[in-house]
Amino acid sequence: MLEQNSEDNKKISIEDELKKSYLEYSLSVIVGRAIPDVRDGLKPVHRRILFAMHELSNTYNRPYKKSARVVGDVIGKYHPHGDSAVYDALVRLAQDFSMRDPLVDGQGNFGSIDGDAAAAMRYTEVRMSRLTSEFLTDIEKETVDFRPNYDNSLEEPSVLPTKVPNLLVNGSSGIAVGMATNIPPHNLGELCDALLTLLDDPNCSVDEVIACVPGPDFPTAGAIFGGQGLIDAYRTGRGSIKMRGKVEIEQFKKDKELVVIREIPYALNKSSLVEKIAQLINEKKIDGVSDLRDESDRKGIRVVLELKRGTIPDIVINSLYKFTPLETSFGFNMLVVAGNRPALLNLKQMLEYFLDHRKEIIIRRSRYDLRKSEERAHILEGLRIALDNIDEVVSLIRSSKTPLEAKERLMERFSLSERQSQAILDMRLQRLTNLEREKLLDEYAELLKFIEYLRSILENDEVLRGVIRDEIIELKDKYATPRRTEILDSLEGIDIEDLIPDENVVITLSRRGYIKRTPLDTYQQQRRGGKGIAGVHTSAEDFIQSFCTTTNHQYLLLFTNLGKMHQLKVHQIPEGSRTAKGLHIANLLPMEKEEFIATALTIREFTPDRYFLFVTRKGMVKRTAIDLYKNVRVGGIRAVNLNEEDELLDVKEVPAQAEILLATEYGQGIRFSVADVRPMGRSAAGVKGIALAGKDRVASGVVFGDPERNQVLTVSANGFGKRSDVDLYRLQSRSGKGVINMKVTAKTGHVIGATSVCESDDILLLTSANKIIRTPVASVRNVGRAAQGVTLVDMEQGVTVMGFDIVDGVSGDVVSDKEETAS
To answer: Is 611 marked active-site?
Structure first.
């Protein structure tokens, strides 16, 4: 509290004073600056600009005037703010990409859709557009109230007597204090139809009005999908729609195509769109584009993406809509000033306010015209009496000593009013001719009819509505233009998978995180013991860690050594040649510093009756329902909790009745039923699967669910491999030490993995020298458990086998986990 000692001052609460002052300030910004009036659809600055141009006679049929002249009049007479703010508002009124129907006809540089600024106001010239003349018609007939300007030296209109439903024609956007508005532009012809519908049936529903206005009509054209969001917006004043630019496909040369952007969403900066597309091309999020160029000119927009040979244009278009503002949303917030207060209105209410405004304008105009007509008829009645008694009138005037005496004698003799007597005295002698007499009588007769018509407007609502109807029809015939924005039934994106063949591919992932996708038929079958063909070219410090075969339409589940899971579609992995290094996984997934992909698994669908089996290096196993992993966040999800110094090794898809064999690096193996591992939650750590001796670690987990795949193929680091029947491994309980799986020596090297096979399969092996060999499983001898096997691949000194996978040698299809467990 502030307390003053003077008796003239009172105690004032600072809190109350701040609330009161801020409320007044807020209301001033809302009503007097940022939010448009529901009647003429203009903010004060735009209204003052148009009125100043009207006062300057800067109309569409007069010569242009310098913008600086208009801005000077506006800030000097009506709008006491900065000249740059007024000029920016004037510029926007002249931009055909900002206004559906521009209100200012500009000459010079008024900016561009690329965001370029307009030339200085001393260079550009303006005048009203033809449509703007309809905003100020009859303003001199007392149709609207005027109020003092900021210094009380002049008067300005509080609203314009517009015939145009400008609020919806050109839309509006603005941010006030605690409030904002965002109204899209519409088609004038459609709005006229809606006004006529509302005029014929004031009690019609909002949906009947919506039927006349199917959606916004943007100056930049494009396409929209409204759906329920558009219906909500028109019914309540709030909602959202999707906007899209228009893209065409053009043939370029013989085997190359162009994707051409011809239209962009409303209020989108074209240059920023091109920059975004270029950035996404560099980041490989939009693939298959060899060149990007902006060929736009004064004829229209033309942004060209030149595609590489073999690129599917629809995939590039889909990526443009998905990753760039070429598809964006427009949020309706139809807040306006109605009755000097902010109000959120629906479509019907806005049109009703406009019709009420037109009714008031026509009534006030009719009253003004009626008063003027009656005054003129009164004069004409006096002149008619004088003409009927012209000789006596002339004699009376000649015999009078002064004009005042003549006026009084005329009033007394013919029972005239003072104004009629004065009009007779002011009459020129040429009016005494017969021709002029006929004109005067005709004018009087016409004036009487007009007076009768004006009175019918003021007394009969049907006549008043008829006047409004005629004005709306005339406005539509004169100014309506065809719709520019296309309204789509749906904005569903192209299903990329429908465009990509579901062919067999090989996914390779290096320890340093470089991943790629290669068609399987790149690798031809060879004899056992061959040297293989060149695979991925990696650096000296890198090597291939994950290597799997799959198909393009499957989900690729990437499990990291830290127990997290990420999900991609296989076709999202960039395709590379047989020797390409690939793209770093960090461009596709968020990864921690010490994190790498431990295993990759492919799956077509997530079903609750199937399970993942997790295997860790320390011999822990966990079984969890697959459907717990279908909702994956952008940053991945926790797949399994790990004990200290343990890491995730492998993940398999298993049925409830399957069996699993854990193979260790030192040549041990244990076979037990998956049913021994009870189902657990997604973040559980699991139970012990095998008891490891010394520094031994688990190398692989093999699932047996297909009776035809009843053999174990074990591969060692030095390229040795062997095949053994699974029955040679006795079924026992989990957490035991197991039995010998392979005789490990310095010659064979440690076991790198094992898998289930049948004789018709092929095996793909990848070496640390980046060589890949494909050989039949049948060429690997079937031996006992403790054998060391045969040479699978001929390797040079120091080269080791880094990974392997199985392919169905008969059909060429990938042997996926799903197919292994189908039976």
So the answer is: no
Instruction: Kindly name the residue from 25, 123, 150, 555 that is annotated as catalytic.
Output: 123
User: How far apart are alpha carbons 320 and 144 in whole angstroms?
Assistant: 50
Q: Which of 451, 438, 428, 449 is nearest to 384 (CA)?
A: 438
Q: Quickly list DSSP for 752-768.
A: EEEEEE-TTEEEEEEET
Q: Check: pTM over 0.85? Answer yes or no.
A: no
Give, for 498, the enclosing helix (H) or strand (E): helix 496-499
- For the domain made up of 500-820, the CATH class stated in words is mainly beta
Question: What is the distance of C-alpha 683 from the center of its chain?
Answer: 37
Q: If we measure between CA atoms, which residue out of 623, 617, 659 comes closest to residue 642?
A: 617
**Cα–Cα dist 169/184, whole Å:** 8
Residue type, 335: L
> How many angstroms separate the CA atoms of 818 and 629, rounded?
16
DSSP of 153-211 = SSEEESS---SS-HHHHT-EEEE-SS-EEEE----HHHHHHHHHHHHH-TT--HHHHHH
R_g of the chain computed on alpha carbons = 43
Using CA atoms in the order 775, 507, 550, 665, what is the torsion angle rounded to 10 degrees?
60
Task: Please give the CATH topology (third level) of the domain spanning 359-479.
Answer: Topoisomerase; domain 3 (1.10.268)
Alpha carbon distance 647, 617 (integer Å): 6
Q: Which pLDDT tens digit goes with each residue over 620-671?
A: 999 999 888 888 887 789 999 998 889 998 888 888 788 999 999 999 999 9
Q: Are 520 and 506 in contact (CB under 8 A)?
A: yes
- Positive or negative, the CA dihedral 587, 590, 594, 600 is negative
Report the candidate in 227, 301, 242, 299 with the shortest Cα–Cα distance to residue 271: 301
Q: pLDDT band for position 809 (50/70/90)?
A: low
Provide the token pair at 466.
Answer: 């008829």
Residue in this structure with the two tokens 């809606």, named with its chain if needed: 194
User: Most distant CA pair in the chain: distance in Å?
Assistant: 151
Residues 542, 510 contacting (CB under 8 angstroms): yes
- Partners of 155 in beta bridges: 148
Note whether 46 and 159 are within 8 A (CB): no
Cα(218)–Cα(184) distance, rounded to whole angstroms? 7
**How far, in Å, CA of 118 to CA of 110, rounded?**
4
Q: For residues 99-109, b (16+ Cβ closer than 10 Å) or e, as one string? A: bbbbbbbbebe
**Integer Cα distance of 171 and 629 in angstroms:** 47
Which CATH architecture group holds 42-161?
Alpha-Beta Complex (3.90)
* Residue partners of 786: CB distance under 8 A and separation at least 6: 740, 742, 743
Tokens of 672: 């037990």
C-beta separation of 648 from 562 below 8 A: yes
List pLDDT tens digits, range 449-484: 999 999 999 999 999 999 999 999 999 999 999 999
Measured over the CA atoms of residue 567, residue 569, residue 571 and residue 572, the dihedral's sign is negative
Assign 584 to helix, strand or coil.
strand
Q: Domain 246-325 classified CATH 3.30.1360.40?
A: yes
CB 663 within 8 A of CB 780: no
Amino acid making up residue 673? S
Distance CA 230, CA 215 (A): 7
Q: Are 379 and 417 in contact (CB under 8 A)?
A: no
Give the domain ranges of the chain: 42-161, 246-325, 359-479, 500-820
